[in-house]
Amino acid sequence: MVTLFRWLVRLTVGLIFLAVALVALAWYFAIRSLPDYDGSYTVRGISAPVEIVRTTEDVPHIFGETDHDVFFALGLAHAQDRLFQMTVLRRAAQGRLAEIYGAGALPADDLARRMGLYRNARASIEAQDAQVLDALQAYADGVNAWIEQINLGARGRGAPEFFLYPEDISYWEPADSLAILKLLAASSSVQMRREVLRARLSLAAPERGHELVAMRGEPPLPAYAGLFPGARFTASDRGAGPQDWTSVLAGYLAPSAGASANGFAAAARRTAAGGALLANDPQFALTAPGLWYLARIELGSGGVIGGTIPGIPAVLSGRNTSLAWGITPAQIDDQDLYIEEVQPGDPNRYRGVNGWTEFATRREILRVRGAEPQTITLRETENGPVIPAGHLNLATIVPAGHVAALSWTGGYGNDRSMTALIGLMQAQNRRSGARVLQDMIAPAMTVTLADSGGVGQVMAGAVPHRLAEHQTAGRMPTPGWLAQNRWQGLNPAPAGLTELHPESGIVAATGAAPPGSAGLGHDWGDAYRQARLRHLIDTREVHSRDSFIAAQNDIVSPIARALLPLVGAELWFTGEPAARGTPERLRQDALALLANWDGAMSEHLPEPLIYAAWMRALQDRLVRDDLGPLADELTELFPDFIEGVFRNRNGASAWCDIRQSAPVETCTQIARQALDAALLDLVARFGPDLASWRWGDLHRARHVHPALGDMRGISYIVNLIQPTSGGEATVAHAGFLGHGRNPWLNVTGAAYRGVYDLADPDSSVFIISTGQSGHPLSRHYDDMAELWRRGEYVVMSLDPALARAAATGITHLRPAGD
Description:
This is Penicillin acylase family protein. The protein is an alpha+beta fold.
């Protein structure tokens, strides 16, 4: 017995030592992948020594003798800090995520292949200017130089994720950068998703369904069942609801995910310091690491500083020595779905304008980690690639014997958008900036510009040319065999949407419809947010950097201010207080809080929580009896719809009547019932003391790591979760998940913010949502997250002396053979 005990003790001690050794070994290899920012490397591909000066926040300031060498160093710096993220973005564009993630990523790969993101990127290489081709190649060489250093120096495979997702890291190619830009364009547009929603609303509620998403003053749409008599309303095949958010973010960006931004500027005559101001905050899904990366590069045309996306060799939002710029997704209708009739008895042919036509087909292989490869057949019609019914709920609207095809401005192989973005960095004034942006195809953007002479905005990107006879004007899928529905080519953005000399000296964009944009889009960004932003900047005669920072971080909900007086018009308490503990008293206390609330969506207040829960419950009660199971899939609030109902616009108050009941319910009754239901749910979560509730308890930003975010144990290290203020319609955008146990989880936001002051350029401020490094063990993985949450910034300068004074490391690159 004693001998057995001794052996058990020895075995236990041995297992403990083995576990410790394995942890230490894993730690050692993970630490090996942290780059040495004071390193010196001999590399091929540069003509002279290059310096990468790293500041306290790990922002690289790159100095070289030629533009080629500077773009090379930018590629190397991106790879040092974000190599895994870059390879995942590339895989998402190539349709190769399943090779590392397994079968769960097959739908994303399938859609990317069918949209032709990488194929069209490769076809666009030759369309770029010679200078841009050189920059793309230099950038790729820089990425590859770091991959070579990883292999030569046994640097832990470049990122710890590569140990869990083993792969051979293929060398970077210029087409990879163009493909990521294509992916960004596909992610920024929501038009496919919106067309499917309109069709489903038409099928579920033919008489009034369109009112949920219709813009005020739009002509009515034809009934979808009238366009396709075989179409019938069906519930989503998934039944379980929207796709898991971590799965959506498997590639950091996903087609039809959506994007937004604020871009606003004031001319020198409207500023206290006598120089133009510009603010920009592109809004995408929140990930860890974030999508954005701060960088400064010194080109022959001058220094450039601001926000980049790893994989793309351009500062997308920032400034040079004389010009500042910011980007806002333009939300034009750049995608159309066509329903194509397949010839009965011959699945290889479809109905064209001139009769039955052969599909253009090709086969591609999808490799899957841990499973057999899958071969898919890609089909294409004259309108574009066929998108299978398994994507975007197409199965619920495509009649039997038909397929859906996509026309998209980004689906072309002569796209010079990268030339436009790199040219913008070198532009010296608004006019030259507007000129280079004429090459932009996709994504369509409103670009805000500022220089010493004033401010302006340019809508850049291609616009589909539709005939006036188009059956739905691009708002809903249409028969692909009718010539009147087909695109007649692409046009540049209308010249009338370029304003380089505004009389007011103020410009602002949020994605809402600008003047003169009629017919260009039907799903413009939130007009309430646009109105709030205009109020903040128009009503102040003179602006400062601090006033722009305050506007960029404004958390007042204009929707709350608009809807609460309307919805609660007949509910505000005026009588005797009800007994404590009763539903009536709970409602009275909630209304008392809301009556004195200014609409600020502060994480520390209970009012935003009550308001958000009330509006969500109200919209559900208004539509559920008309839309049935489709109501479960409405993950966003439609404030124009609720306002129209309570103002009885065009008889919209009919939505308040519950069809299944004999009495005719009023909107006041529905509003009261919705508030009671919302309060009961919140009491079950947080208890009956309303004053103790906090918006931040549910509205928490979740920066999820796409690869490791769902792994038990590791997720606590790689995911960042923090309470946040704001909401979907606030200028400081903080979008909701929209479904599940916590629909108010903050999953989208301004992952980059910048305010550029041309009066004192070195006081310009910048911030990203996580940190510069993508390495979970780096101190720069999340060192900016708390600053970002509090609405604070870091200062970045184009002065080389200031960069060197704050340097925490200098990487020296020397040409091979030097």
